[in-house]
């Protein structure tokens, strides 16, 4: 199968471009969608190619989502972009009371093919108003699908699947992943909603991760490999629908699990994963499920505090050592925070 190496942002832009060429009902709108920065570069060039089907809007999040709902039930395929997921909280009335339940409320007669892209993540002093994730909030509502692509291949494939879905899908993109370059297949572009992905095979412990935590989990797995520990990294990638089968299969093989969610742990997605494992694979567990997430405080602004707030590969390595009863690895010479050091700004 042919493939190319492209960035996460280019994968998103390709997905949008291909779907807009394929279906004239697809259009994109949101704050700064059509300006020169183009949402981290993910929409650059689309205004020039598709004209009025790509347009910027005023600051009015609730109205933007409501507009998308109206367009979707009228037969169009809107893609609404929010450059900070935090702002999407201003649209919770539309999301919780209208968008999520419209298909159900119409007795299944009306479809709501609305895609909402929202940017999450840390870096460059994003602090407490610009760095939430909110996947647990959205996935808690029946009627909303939620995905968190980590790789360029998934960024394109999940977005295309979301656009072709008949009902609302929220796509959460981490800003620090936009510069990641990796292989994207030219064929089999669709990545199905509701399917986890095993990023790395292993037999000693399972690390279930979401979004950017997969980067840290792979980093940790590489460090652990040097001392003979084989970690399996499972990218949940679809929060709802949730693929418990792939995760339970891994747990039955390793018996040890760490859930590294890009969010707070209390009442979060990691709690849901731990509960499902306990309910369905308790007899396979050799140790209690360990959860890793943000410190339970608002996100700080400065890098030194960010480094304490967000768990990283070092925290994962130490957690694995604790679970497996190993002595602490000498991490002198290992490099951490490499992505943070590359990040050059919020746009």
Distance between the termini: 34 Å
Shape: globular
Helix content: 25-40%
Count the beta strands.
Answer: 14
Question: Mean of residue pLDDT?
Answer: 95
One letter per element, helices H and strands E, the order comes to EHEHHEHEHHEHEHEEEEHEEHEHEHHH
* SS field, number of helical segments: 14
The helix/strand class is alpha/beta
Q: Low-confidence parts, pLDDT < 50 over ≥5 residues?
A: none
Sheet with most strands: strand arrangement: 3-2-4-5-7-6-12
Share of β-strand residues: 15-25%
The Cα radius of gyration reads 20 Å
Summarize the main sheet.
Answer: 7 strands, mixed
Explain this structure.
The chain has 347 residues and is α/β, with parallel strands linked by helices. It is built from 14 helices and 14 strands. Strands 3-2-4-5-7-6-12 form a 7-stranded mixed beta sheet, with helices on both faces. It has a 5-stranded mixed beta sheet with strand order 9-11-10-13-14, sandwiched between helices. Strand 13, helix 11 (269-281) and strand 14 (290-294) form a beta-alpha-beta unit. Helix 9 crosses helix 13 (313-324) and helix 10 (244-254) crosses helix 11 (269-281). The chain is globular and about 60 Å long. The two termini are 34 Å apart. 47% of the residues are buried. The mean pLDDT is 95.
